[in-house]
Structure formats: C-alpha cells, structure tokens
Amino acid sequence: MGTWERIWPHGVCFLQSNCTNSSRYVTKAFLVVVGVRDDGYCEILGARIADGEDELFWSGLFQDLKDRGLSGVKLVISDGHKGIQKAVEKSFLCASWQISLTEVSESFDKVETCVMCILCELS
Description:
Shape: globular
Number of helices: 3
Largest sheet: 5 strands, mixed
CATH architecture: 2-Layer Sandwich
Distance between the termini: 29 Å
Strand order of the largest sheet: 4-3-2-6-7
CATH superfamily: Ribonuclease H-like superfamily/Ribonuclease H
Structural class: alpha/beta
CATH class: Alpha Beta
Oligomer: single chain
C-alpha cells in the first residue's frame, strides 16, 4: 500500500433490508478511506460496511489498512465525527487531524456517488 501522507476517512449511512424479513430495515455505515498524494491523485485505500461509525469500527478499518502496509500518515482530514477523531488519535500517533467541512463536502461528492452505486449493486 505504501506511504500516504494525507487520508480522508468518510462514512455514509444507509438503510439495508433484512434478508429474512424484507419489511425490516437496519441502519448500516459504509466506511471509506481515501488517500491523497501530493500531486492530488486520490485512491480508495479501503472500505467496509459496518454497524456504525463509532471509534471501534474506524479503529478496525485503520488497523486493517496499517496491516496491509499503510504508513507515513501525517494528516487526516475529515468531518467532525467523534468516532473518527478518537480512532485517529489512537491509530496514527504522529498524525494531525483537521476538520475541513468544505473540502470534505466537495471532495466526497464524487466518492459518495460512487459509494452509492456500489451499494446499489450489492443490494
């Protein structure tokens, strides 16, 4: 996976139908981490469907990425979600966390559209 100095974790909540009871829906979260190179190139480093966006789920995703070779993270840019903030503090000890509502919103419009397409295909 290599060195990615900047990462953008993002979560999208959605409703999923229960396979055994199609009239029952449960809330799930699609967690995605995008890496950004200095030249602006973005790549989805990892993603998973989880039961929520709390610290436990984000920490698990970050650990999986580190196990696959993610290193060199210096800056994590995300919305103000407390689960992400706490997981970043524990997972990337030397990294700074920065909130950037405008950047996150604009940058993830395309990613979120792509994510929704993926979710539709999984349904």
